[in-house]
Write a structure and sequence with these properties.
Elements lengths: L1 E10 L2 E11 L4 E5 L6 H8 L7 E6 L14 E4 L11 H12 L4 H9 L4 H4 L8 H13 L5 E5 L7 H16 L3 E6 L2 H7 L2 E6 L2 E7 H5 L4 E5 L2 H10 L4 E3 L5 E3 L3 H10 L4 E6 L3 H11 L22
Parallel strand pairs: 3-7, 3-8, 5-6, 6-7
Antiparallel strand pairs: 1-2, 1-4, 8-9, 10-12, 10-13, 11-12
The chain binds adenosine-5'-triphosphate.
The site of adenosine-5'-triphosphate has 11 residues, from helix 1.
């Protein structure tokens, strides 16, 4: 179990993490999704005691990371796969990790096998590893102590599609055995493939969280018309959410028939009207990624464009 409570981190006048609260539960893979610079790594670094928070708290298994006597046996961490010593072989790195944690040497071969690194690859110097091999070695280092919790920052970086499937199966098995997994990514698709629960962060703040089913569920309407702003306002006046997407459509929580009727009553010509089908999360993520080009409805009435499942 990971508990993050009202966590904030400021660097001078800049707030990298802003009042972030979420849990990652045992038996679940929690995906921490956000564009570059959103605050994912900072949150994870605070979680493992590498950075001090400005305020708030982060607990693993009910304790601070610094209170864990032999952390590798309880929490497996992969923050930066390229931080390994390039002059050492994969096997040497795992052997050192095993020694530090007081584990039997046999664990090295077992773990290499678990991450599908061959004997020959384990004998190569890490500087000659591909990024994907480094990720596997990093995951091996995280797993070797058989921890209950895994914290992985962008672990799918450099993995090919087969590698991503391998990692999904590995993390699924880990969670099915009761483990807690928190992994970050800046790619929605990766998180969709791997995670059970999703926490979305943008500009240091949580913007949505829930189960994958909740966040990707359909519902709502995606509509285009000859006047997007007028359509958005008409929907909002009728009590629905409405947001102009980066692709030039209106995304609303109104059902199809209601949206059609509202457009008709407002005298607007619809050029497209269809179910949103999980477009909400994708659109929100696209907007976060291109947050400088956000195209909000201008709203003299202070109309809010927030969507149902967004926090
Ligand atoms: N030591 C630091 N001093 C000043 N600013 C920092 C420091 N560390 C991080 N930041 C800033 O905090 C913000 C969040 O960075 P962070 O690395 O947590 O983002 P991220 O979501 O992990 O992004 P990425 O996907 O690119 O790794 C960024 O704007 C970054 O420049």
């Amino acid at each position: 179990m990971i508990q993050i409570d009202a966590l904030s981190k400021r660097y001078g006048g800049f707030t990298a993490v802003d009042n972030v609260t979420f849990n990652a539960e045992p038996g679940r893979v929690t995906g921490f999704l956000g564009p570059n610079g959103a605050g994912k790594s900072t949150t994870m670094r605070i979680l493992v005691g590498l950075t001090d928070p400005t305020s708030g708290s982060a607990h693993l298994l009910g304790r601070h990371f610094s209170q864990l006597p032999n952390p590798g046996l309880e929490v497996g961490v992969l923050l930066d796969a390229s931080a390994q010593h390039g002059g050492r072989t994969g096997r040497e790195i795992l052997t050192l990790a095993a020694r530090t944690m007081g584990l039997p040497k046999t664990r090295v071969a077992e773990t290499l096998e678990r991450v599908s690194l061959t004997e020959e690859e384990a004998g190569r110097r890490v500087r000659n590893y591909s990024l994907g091999m480094r990720q596997r070695l990093g995951i091996a280092t995280a797993l070797i102590g058989e921890p209950e919790v895994l914290i992985l920052d962008e672990p799918a970086n450099g993995l090919d599609p087969a590698g991503i499937r391998w990692m999904r199966d590995l993390l699924r098995g880990f969670a099915d055995d009761g483990g807690t997994v928190l992994l970050s990514s800046h790619l929605l698709h990766e998180i969709e493939v791997i995670a059970d629960d999703i926490v979305v962060i943008g500009n240091g703040r949580i913007v949505a969280q829930g189960t994958k089913q909740e966040l990707l569920a359909g519902g709502g309407t995606y509509a285009r018309s000859n006047d997007l702003t007028a359509l958005g306002r008409a929907l909002q006046r009728a009590g629905h959410t409405a947001e102009i997407t980066t692709e030039g459509a209106v995304l609303s929580d109104a059902e199809l028939a209601a949206a059609g009727q509202i457009a008709f009553d407002a005298g607007l010509v619809l050029t497209e009207l269809r179910a949103a089908d999980g477009a909400g999360l994708e659109e929100m993520f696209l907007q976060l990624t291109a947050s400088n080009q956000r195209d909000h409805l201008e709203s003299p009435e202070g109309l809010d464009s927030s969507k149902g499942k967004a926090a």
